[in-house]
Amino acid sequence: MVLIVPMILGVAVVSASxxxxxxxxxxxxxxxxxxxxxxxxAPVFSGAGIATHMGHSTSQGYVVFTSAxxxxxxxxxxxxxxxxxxxxxDSFMIxxxxxxxxxxxxxxxxxxxxxxxxxxxxxxxxGISGQGTFDGNSDFSGGVFSMRLTGTISxx
Length: 156
Hints:
AOC barrel-like
């Protein structure tokens, strides 16, 4: 009887490990909305769009300025945190790392990489992982932004 218990526990551990391996599937999203300057001087975003595995969804975000190295004048290194929320309330957060490049007065274009923030998923996105590329633009004089995400996420 003593030998059977460890064997059963071993099977349970292997099954739990296999369940933790999530297959990566393609992910694409496109969002646009309003951008404003938050009370701390950093941009905040509020938008809507569409994404695979989410359908019509919303995006709420904020910027944290960083000191990442840049190789041109006027670039603004930053991390952009975005919470993507499906219509049913399931959500996850991504962080993109990029340098915002000025393209005109109060206008910026940025591109970089993003990844899912660990343990940020709720509902069907609990335990999600993923990564990809990001590009977007902000026009502070018009108060608008748009962004596109491509990459992979673990199957919801």
